[in-house]
Amino acid sequence: MKILVTGAAGFIGSNLVDALLLENHTVVGIDNLSTGRPEFLNLASKHPNFDFKQLDILNRAALSEVLDSSFDCVCHLAANADVRRGIEAPFRDLEQNTIATWNVLEAMRDSGVKHIVFTSTGSVYGEAEVIPTPENAPFPVQTSLYGASKLACEALISAYCEGYNMRGTVYRFVSFVGDRYTHGHIYDFVRQLLRSPDELRILGDGSQRKSYIHVSDGVAAIAAVLRHPSPKKYEVFNLGTSEYVTVNDSIAEICAEMGVCPERLYSGGSRGWVGDNPFIYLDCSRIRQHLDHIWAPKIGILDGVRMTVRYLLTNKHLFDAAGSVQ
Amino acid sequence: MKILVTGAAGFIGSNLVDALLLENHTVVGIDNLSTGRPEFLNLASKHPNFDFKQLDILNRAALSEVLDSSFDCVCHLAANADVRRGIEAPFRDLEQNTIATWNVLEAMRDSGVKHIVFTSTGSVYGEAEVIPTPENAPFPVQTSLYGASKLACEALISAYCEGYNMRGTVYRFVSFVGDRYTHGHIYDFVRQLLRSPDELRILGDGSQRKSYIHVSDGVAAIAAVLRHPSPKKYEVFNLGTSEYVTVNDSIAEICAEMGVCPERLYSGGSRGWVGDNPFIYLDCSRIRQHLDHIWAPKIGILDGVRMTVRYLLTNKHLFDAAGSVQ
């Protein structure tokens, strides 16, 4: 297949590009490089079936120049992924997620590309009433602008599938960890501990439960579904593992890997930031059944945390740039 | 209370303005008059507690000039309501519904106005699996750009309520009928029959089931909830009646009222247009319980259809303007 990947220089995007190239797809990656990193595509760039264009998907003319009818699929990963800063800059979620996704859909409609793969988030379940949360959970109430903007994307995609006879495959993710991880609590904690190994500031009380999936498992699932598509025109898959840990469990793993034993300074009560959800834990039986005997997550959560810490410690230049909070 | 009503010159907006003035609220109505009609505000304009400003809510500066901290509430009704033309002009739904609602929320945040009342739609349930459909139905799949854009609005509103400590009251409507109705199947059928009483073209096979509520009942519910608010920061109410009819039932009523007996020409299969839903029928027990002994719909569906036909026949100038399809 010939596949366009948006957000190709990002954490998940670049891993997906590598996975797709390994399966002999032809891949064009695009990224505005606002948070993506060109070096994440170093491996891909050596591959004859890969091409990269720097462009912003908010620029529809530029997007339409790249996307022509020779593509079989668009994997749309470009997004504002900073869940926590939503309330400081609400337009960012609306523009970079919702309006950008609309742009991608319009460019696909113009060029006749029929299949979109979209990376949504478990945040769309808000404060889920059912845990683990299945795809057909009760109609959710959004608690973050990030979740709201991603839900709006999902809604647009499903309406386009219905209205323009397109196909949509939507993944609602738990958080990803692994190589090229540059954003989130492990990054924040490792950065803090590199600066001051005796003290760790933690938003929330550490009891927040979180479920993570290793990026290699996540992109393998997406690649497998491309080989074994759903018979449905519009399909939603939760994507995560059947495990969860607390932030404190994760901290213990990080500290052990770094060989430090900091004083833990908690703040902010039982949840870290407005709109944070104390527990995103997804029922992933739908994708497990769909990919029965083909795919299952291979890396456990704490192994994933440890591998991520090692990755960060061997790529300390990632801490030189601004971009993460906490 | 001092209330801003957007879309004030529209069908539902102008009826809501009249109902709020009757309850001694101070009302400022705004409308860009793209589809709203100034004459719908003739009654309101005689009231000392009413003021009207023509402005487009996509113009945030103009909106922010009107909306100051003296307002208690914004009833946000302005929208692109043409469900059927979504696939012809998808940006209209995104811009006039989603981006416009974001503008209203930002203007409220700037001015410190804390309560938004929003008119959503039963279309957000897509092809509902549970009928009658309750507010906490399974996570829906959008089948129209209109529904998608309204779901995006709901998501934004709930995220703003969580992030900025605002209050939101969202109504998911069935279709409204009654005085000032200018848009929808009764309008289309009456217009056709005035031109050619012997023939009626019908999208779909006429068996589509529909539930309507009379606009006087609908706006009375909204006004009653303003007097008796939900204790929840963010509340969603379905708003409809416990009845439904088929399009054919409705046609029979229209024809009887007009004294015509046309040949019926059906086209388009079992549903009228791409994205049409064969049956939007809402479980309205939540609002009935909330307003127990205070409010219940008074006008049955076919009575509502007949009253709407009479209204249109005594206001034939409404057919002079373009704007409706079918």
Please count the helical segments of chain A.
10
Low-confidence stretches of chain A: none
Globally, the shape of chain A reads globular
| Order of adjacent strands in the largest pleated sheet of chain A | 3-2-1-4-5-6-11
Largest interface, chains and sizes:
A-B, 41 and 41 residues
Q: Let me know the average pLDDT of chain A.
A: 93
Relative helix content of chain A: 25-40%
Radius of gyration based on Cα positions of chain A: 19 Å
Give me the secondary-structure topology:
The structure is a homodimer.
Chain A: E1 2-6, H1 11-22, E2 26-31, H2 42-45, E3 50-54, H3 60-66, E4 73-76, H4 90-111, E5 115-121, H5 145-164, E6 167-173, E7 175-177, H6 185-195, E8 199-203, E9 209-210, E10 212-214, H7 215-227, E11 234-239, E12 245-246, H8 247-258, E13 263-267, E14 279-280, H9 285-290, H10 301-313
